[in-house]
Structure formats: structure tokens, C-alpha cells
UniProtKB/TrEMBL annotation:
Sequence ranges assigned to domain YjeF N-terminal in this UniProt record: 14-162
Protein name as annotated: Bifunctional ADP-dependent NAD(P)H-hydrate dehydratase/NAD(P)H-hydrate epimerase
PROSITE patterns cross-referenced by the UniProt entry: YJEF_N (PS51385)
Domain of life: Bacteria
Length: 162
């Protein structure tokens, strides 16, 4: 039987781990987000080494912040990155808003319509919704999830939306 390379946690366990880490006096929420993004980007490099053209889909919460930082790391590593925000970027707050600025400072551009993506995407990064998801997905989120699930390779840091 094949084992998974890292443990999987339930949404509640992931929230508890995040909360405990943020309570440590030695780490800020943004530092924790940065570490998550670094680990996510490292996993992309390891598991999808040929994927150099990525599309990152971001929502509004801290999971979106992870996506913005992964996208910034990818740009700095020479990847072609297309980032699509599914919400108005003015809705970003706190650490996620700071992550958006890091992405823009890296030379990133934010797209508001996923239908403007071309068909050369080699990997989709799902940073839409995190462990706080407690409702049925509808509207633009549902449209984007349908697009992501058309068969292209995809990865997610928290909850893959399939």
C-alpha cells in the first residue's frame, strides 16, 4: 500500500493548527502565511517539475493570501503566472492584503475574469476557499470551480474544491 508523503488533516484540525501557531509569540500571521506559501511552492516544484505556466485562483481570505505569495514566489523563480481574483481585490484585508502587495511588487498582474486565460496553463493552484468554508458554493466561485475541474492538473493548499 502506498502512503501519502505528508499527513492530511480535517478542516477543524487545520484551523486548530493555524490558531496554535498564531498564538506563538515568535511568529506573526503573515510569517505563518509566508511559510505556508514557501512549502506550497516547494511542493509545486517537487510534484509538478515541468509546469512552468501556472494559473492561481484566489478568493478573499487567508487562503487567498497563500495563493498571492505562491504566485510571487513563482514569478521570482521565472514561472509564467496568471492570477485570477474571484472577488474584488478591495475585499482583501490584513495578511491577505499584504500578500497581494508582495505579489504586485514581484511584477504580478491580477485578472478578474478567468475566461481571459489562454489554454497554455500547465497547472492550476486553487487558493479560493480555506478551512472556513461552511456553505454551498455558488456564483462566480462555482463557475471557477467548474473550470478548474475540466481536467487540467491542479493543486490546493487546504481544501481542493472538486
Amino acid at each position: 500500500m502506498q502512503t501519502l508523503p505528508t499527513p492530511l488533516y480535517s478542516a477543524q484540525q487545520a484551523r486548530d493548527i493555524d490558531r496554535m501557531a498564531q498564538e506563538l509569540p515568535s511568529i506573526t500571521g503573515f510569517q505563518l502565511m509566508t511559510k505556508a506559501a514557501e512549502a506550497g511552492f516547494k511542493a509545486i516544484q517537487e510534484y509538478y517539475p515541468a509546469a512552468r505556466k501556472i494559473a492561481v485562483f484566489c478568493g478573499a481570505g487567508n487562503n487567498a493570501g497563500d495563493g498571492y505569495l505562491i504566485a510571487a514566489l513563482a514569478i521570482n523563480a521565472g514561472y509564467r503566472v496568471r492570477l485570477v481574483s474571484v472577488v474584488a481585490i478591495q475585499k482583501l484585508q490584513g495578511d491577505a492584503a499584504q500578500a497581494k502587495e508582495v505579489f504586485l511588487d514581484a511584477g504580478g498582474m491580477i485578472l478578474l475574469d478567468f475566461q481571459t486565460l489562454d489554454n497554455t496553463t500547465e497547472l492550476v493552484v486553487d487558493a479560493l476557499l480555506g478551512t472556513g468554508l461552511d456553505r454551498n458554493v455558488s456564483g462566480k466561485f462555482a463557475e471557477v470551480i467548474s473550470y478548474i475541474n475540466t481536467g487540467m492538473p491542479s493543486t490546493s493548499g487546504y481544501i481542493p474544491l472538486k
